[in-house]
Amino acid sequence: MADLQWHAERLDWDSLPGQPMDLFGRWHGAAAETEPWHGAAMQLACATKDGMPSARTVLMRGFGEDGIQFFTNYESRKGQIFDENPVFAAVFWWPSQVRQVRMEGRVARLSRAASDAYFAGRPRGSQLGAWSSPQSQTIGDLASLRQRYAAIEKAFSGKPVACPPFWGGYLLEPLRVEFWQGGQDRLHDRALYEKDGACWTLTRLAP
Prior knowledge:
Number of helices: 5
CATH class: Mainly Beta
Number of strands: 9
Low-confidence stretches: none
Order of helices and strands: HEEEEHEEHHHEEE
Structural class: alpha+beta
Helix content: 25-40%
CATH architecture: Roll
């Protein structure tokens, strides 16, 4: 197969910020314009305490200087793994921008107040679905899940749907962030930020 022809900007090293989430914000903003759905999609990986990896695609629901936020069922497989081994790796791939971001770091649950606030803004159907689905557990068929949903819908009829105690947010705090910008002739740009205490160091990697 012929090599792909890259048509992308080069990384301007003189303008790179001192900490990675500033650059992540710029890149995500550009991706959100050209890939409105996939802009927030990330491949999230974790590993059991025995080293067995597990990966899936989830949606980022917010970010800041401290890291990435996403929300899920704490009793799901990833939630159980995070309880025993609170580390992660994540990948964002934005083909329209010919860009990839890789992160590695620590995981912590968000506060109950933060989880409640996010849950309150979700569509009602998604709220009911969070109560109804025993995520990652074995179920008999879809009909039984729909019956469970109907029972939950009836229980919350005429009143707000509270956030389940088994559902909430995580903060993915990166300790290592790599930005990859595709370039022609396989001369890609790779910028690596690594956290040392409260400071970040920036180095350039060979493609």
